[in-house]
Amino acid sequence: MVLRQFFSAITGKEAGKKFWGQIIDELENTKITTLPKTLLDHLDNIRDNFRNPTQHPDKIYDIDEAQDLFGVSIDVVDQMVPFIRLQQDKSRD
User: Fold this and answer.
1) Which of these, 91, 84, 6, 71, lies nearest to 40 by C-alpha position?
2) Stretch (H or E) spanning 18
3) By three-state DSSP, how is residue 17 classified?
């Protein structure tokens, strides 16, 4: 949900039925604003190394993997929220 709000805040468009990879691709190619490379890298890392394997029914995360995912998730949400808030503030004006 936060990723979709972030996408909308950056592009001004709804994410609709776009897949996570499509959203990241569009964010990387946007000329609207310069996004931190580390944020985009972390989003792709979560997609590729955590979200996609989770779709496999036999995947079970050990405690270290779960903590890694939790830590990087906090980081990316913390980086996305200011962009979302800025857009919300603009829409109130």
Assistant:
1) 6
2) none
3) coil
Rounded Cα–Cα distance for residues 40 and 28 (Å): 7
Ordered alpha helix ranges (H), the chain: 2-11, 20-29, 37-46, 52-54, 63-92
* Rounded Cα distance, 75 and 60, in Å: 23
Taken as a whole, the chain contains a residue count of 93
Interacting residues of 26 by C-beta distance below 8 A, sequence separation 6+: 7, 11, 18
pLDDT per residue as tens digits for the range 25-56: 999 988 776 788 999 999 999 998 888 877 77
- With 0.70 as the threshold, say if the pTM is over it: yes
